[in-house]
Amino acid sequence: xxxxxxxxxxxxxRNDYRGGKSTLCPGCGHDSISNxxxxxxxxxxxxxxxVIKMSGIGCSSKTPxxxxxxxxxxxxxxxxxxxxxxxxxxxxxxxVAMGVSGDGDTGSIGLGQYKHLLRRNVPMVYIIENNGVYGxxxxxFSATADEGxxxxxxxxxxxxxxxxxxxAIVSNCTFVGRSFSGDPGQVQALLKASIAHKGTAVLDIVSxxxxxxxxxxxxxxxxxxxxxxxxxxxIDLLAPDFVEEREEIMIExxxxxxxxxxxxxxGTIVRLKKTDRDYDPRQRVQAIQLLEEARMDNLxxxxxxxxxxxxxxxAESENLSDRPLTQLPDNMLRPPREALxxxxxxxx
Amino acid sequence: xSIAEIQQDTEFLAEExxxxxxxxxxxxxTKNGSGSQTSNSVLVRSLFHMGIPVNxxxxxxxxxxxxxxxxxxxxxxEGYIARRDTTEIAIAMNELTAAEDIAxxxxxxxxxxxQEWKWGRTRDDIIWYEIPVKETIRQFKIPSARxxxxxxxxxxxxxxxxxxxxxxxxxxALSDQFRGKAGPVNMxxxxxxxxxxxxxxxxxxxxxxxxxxxxxxxxxxxxxxxEAAALGAIFGGVTFASWYPITPSTSLIDALLGYRHLRxxxxxxxxxxxxxQAEDEIAAIGMVVGxxxxxxxxxxxxxxxxxxxxxxFAGLAYIAExxxxxxxxxxxxxxxxxxxxxxxxxxxxxxFLGHGDSQQVVLxxxxxxxxxxxxxxxxxxxxxxxxxxxxLSDLDIGMNNWMSEPFEYPDRPINRGKTLDKIGLxxxxxxxxxxxxxxxxxxxxxxxxxxxxxxxxxxxxxxxxTGHNDKGEYxxxxxxxxxxxxxxxxxxETARTLVPAPAIETSPELRIGIVSYGSNDPAVQEARDRLRxxxxxxxxxxxxxxxxxxxxxxxxxQHERVYVVENNFDGQMTSLIRIDMPQDNSHVESLALGDGxxxxxRFVYESILNMEQGQNAQERTY
Lengths: 348, 622
Fold this sequence. Notes:
The complex is a heterodimer.
Chain A: H1 29-44, E1 51-55, H2 59-62, E2 72-75, H3 81-91, E3 96-102, H4 103-107, H5 111-120, E4 124-130, E5 133-134, E6 140-141, E7 150-151, E8 155-156, H6 164-170, E9 175-180, H7 184-196, E10 200-206, H8 222-228, E11 229-231, E12 233-238, H9 243-251, E13 259-263, E14 269-274, H10 284-297, E15 300-307, H11 314-317, H12 330-333, H13 337-347
Parallel strand pairs in A: 1-2, 1-3, 3-4, 4-10, 9-10, 11-15
Antiparallel strand pairs in A: 5-6, 7-8, 9-15, 12-14, 13-14
Chain B: H1 12-16, E1 23-31, H2 36-49, E2 54-59, E3 68-76, E4 89-92, H3 98-103, E5 110-114, E6 127-131, H4 133-138, H5 144-151, H6 153-163, H7 167-177, H8 182-202, E7 221-224, H9 225-235, E8 240-243, H10 250-259, E9 274-277, H11 281-294, E10 298-302, H12 304-320, E11 324-332, E12 338-342, H13 347-351, E13 361-363, H14 368-385, E14 388-394, H15 395-399, E15 401-404, E16 419-420, H16 422-432, E17 449-450, E18 462-464, H17 478-498, E19 503-505, E20 512-517, H18 521-533, E21 538-543, E22 545-546, H19 550-558, E23 561-566, H20 572-580, E24 588-592, H21 601-621
Parallel strand pairs in B: 1-4, 4-5, 5-6, 8-9, 8-10, 10-11, 11-14, 13-14, 16-17, 20-21, 20-23, 23-24
Antiparallel strand pairs in B: 1-3, 2-3, 7-15, 11-12, 13-22, 19-21
Helix pairs in contact in B: 2-6, 2-7, 6-8, 7-8, 9-10, 9-14, 11-12, 18-21
C-alpha cells in the first residue's frame, strides 16, 4: 500500500473509519486502542457494514461509539456482551464481530459468559481494555488489580488478581494475545492477526486509567508499562497476497529458529520474530508456564501468548447452513401446507 | 329463576356418576421413574382412538426416581376435558400412598392393587380387584432394568379387560408410543395380553364402569402444548433458539430439535434453526437478543426462575426495541416453589418485566392449538412491534397430552415488520431525505430498523440501553428521554390493536360475567354448563393477550358482577384489570385458586354459586 495514500482499497479515507468524539478522560489508554482499531480497519480495508461493534458496560464499553462510525453497534448490559455476540454471529456468519470489554465487565460480572464464549469458539475479536480499576463508579478495585495494591478510597487489595489471558488459555481459547496500549505498533499487529483468526481471539490489553490507577507502582499504569513491557517477539503480518514477496526480504535478517510463521485461516501469515527469549506460543504448557512466571515476577510480557489451530466455530459444530440464517427467503422460513397436513394426519 | 330458588348442588360427584359409561375418572398411583408414564400414555391413547373424549394429567414430583406420582385420566361423553379432583377408580401401585389413595375413593369406587401386598380389604363400601403383578412379570424373560416399567403394563391389561378397551386399540397405542419399534411393542404387548387373559379367567366384574366406542375424537389430535409451541415456531420461521434446562419448559426445546428436520436447507441438508443450550437463562436471552437484533426470528423457552434472571435483558430489549419471543411455561413459585406443579403466577411480573417503566406484550394460549397459533404469530408480532413478546403457557398445557383440533396453517404470510434492506433504505432516503432509527415517521410508535450487514453507508445505528434521542444518539437530556417514553407508550397502544382479541360469549341477561384465560378454559366451560343447568346464566370472556383489548373493559362494564377466574394465589389478572379500569371496578371479584394443580370445574362452579348466594342474601337484606 502506498505510504501517502489518501484512500484505501475501498476508496475510503481514514476519516471514514472514525466514530464520534470520545468522552473518556484525556489520556485514557482506551482512546489509544480505538485509534489503533481505526487505523488497522482502514489499512485492511474492512467493510464496515459487515462489522458489528459489541460491548458491555463500563468505560471500555463506551468506546465502540468512538470508532468505525459506519458499523452497527450494540452496547449491551454489564458482563453479557459475549451472549449477545454469540446470538448475532450464529445467525449471520458474514459479520465480523469486534467486542470491547473491560476488566470489570469481563473479570467480574462477566467471567461466566467470557469462559463459555471461549468454550464455544464464537468467531470474534474480544478486546479487554484492562486497567485494574472501576472507572465509571469512581475507583474501586477490579478483579485484575495487583495483590497488595493501595488505592485512595478503597485501601489495600489483599486478593490475588485474575489473569484473563490465563483464563482464556485454560478455557480452550485458540488465540490469546496480551499488549499494552502504550505500544501502538504491537496493538495494531495483534488486532490484524486477531481479525484473521477463525474463532474467538482474545486481546488482553493493559490500558491505563489516568484518573484512578496510574501510580508508577501499579502494573496497569503508563509508567510501569513503559518501563517494564517485555515484548516476546516482533510481529509482522503478511497478507495473503504478499506472502511470497515479503518472505524473501524478511528471512535474510533472521537466522533459522528465530522466526515462527503462524498461518491464519484466511491465508494471512503472522510472523513472530525472536526478541530476547525463545518462546513458541503454540505450546500450551509453555504458555501457562510463561504466565506463571509473569505472575511471580510482575512481568508485563506482551505479544501472541498462545495460538493453536482453531477448532470448529459454534455455527460449524451446530451443523448450521453456510448461508446467513438472517437472509433466508420466506419459503425457507415456513414449511409448505402439506408438511403440516401430513403431521396432523399422523397425530389423529 | 331467581338466585334464591337455586338448589345448590355441591355434591358434584353424585351428578357425575349418573352415567357409568364413558363418564368417570381414574387415578394411577405409582412411583416416579418407574416408567408408568408409558403405561398411562398407552391408556390415554387407546381411549382417544376409541373416540372417547379423554384427558390425562400427570401430577408428578420433582424427583428422578422413587417419590410418589399420580396420573389422572378422565373420560367424558359430553366432551369435557377439564381436570376432575375426584376419581371413581384408583389403580394403587404405590404401597406408600395406597392407604390415602384408597381412603379418597367415594362409596362404590373401585381399587385395583397388587395381590402380593396382601393388603386386606380395609373398606367394604368399595370394589376390590387384587392383581398378580409380580407373578405375571415372572413368566417373561425381561431384563431387570426394564422389569419395573414393563410391570406397569400389567394394570394396562387388567384395565383393558375390566373396562372394555379392545386389545387392538391398545396395540395401536403401544405402536404410537414406541414409534413402531417391534421389540418394545411386542414385549409390552405380551405382558398386557397375559394380564388381560388372567383378568378374564380370574376376575368377576363387580363395578358398573366401562368404556364404549364413540366418534367424538374423529379428526382431533392428541398432543402436548410444548410440542405444539415448537411446531408453531417451526412454521413461524424460527431461526435461533437458546435455552437453559428447566422444568416444565424443556420439552418445548426437545420438540423443536425433533421438528427442525422440517426446515433443513435443501441445498446442503444442514440446519437452518440454531438451537443452543446456554450456561444459564441470562446467556440464553442474551443470545436471543443478539440474534433478534441481527435479524433472526429468535426464541427462548423457560419458566419462572428463568424469567427472573431474564429481567435485565428484557428491559434492554424493550428500550432498545429488539424483537424476541420468550415462552414461559409457568410453574408454581416464588423461588423453586413447586417446580413440577402448574400455575398462572408469572403474569403480573412478566407484564412489567424489567426495571423502570416497561410494559410487555403477553400472549395467553389456552391449549395446544393456541400454542401452535401463538408459536408463529408471536414472531410476526415481535417483528411488527420490535419488542419482546412473551407467551405464557403453563405446565398443564405444556406437558400434558391434550385432545385438540388439528392445527391450522398460518393464514397470512410472514410479516417482518418495518425492516429496511439496502433498497428499502435507498427508497426511504429518496422519499424522506433522512432516516433515523427511532424517529416515529408513521406516528404509530414503531420506527424503521436496519439489520447489521446491510450494505449501505448510512445503514448503521448504535443500539444501546442508555438514553438516546430519536437519531439513536446517546442522550441524557430529559426531553429526549420523555419523548422516547411517549413514543413507546404510543407503540404499546399500537400493540393493543395488534394482539389477539379475546374470545367472548355473551349471555343476553348481562348479569354475571366470567373473565379467565389460558388453561382454565375447559374448567370454566364445564362450570358454565353446570351453572346454566342450575339456572345461572353467565357470559364468558377469555383474555388472549396483554395489553388488554378495549373489549375486555367493555365486557366488564356491561355486566353486573364479574368473576375473574385464575390459577394463582394473589389474583394477578384481577390486579391488571383494576389498573386498566381504576374506576367502577367494585363489581370485579377475584376467584383465584393457586394450589399447584390444573383448574377444576368444581372450583369455578362452587365459587360462583357461593358468591351469588351471598350476593342474593345481601340483596334481600336491603
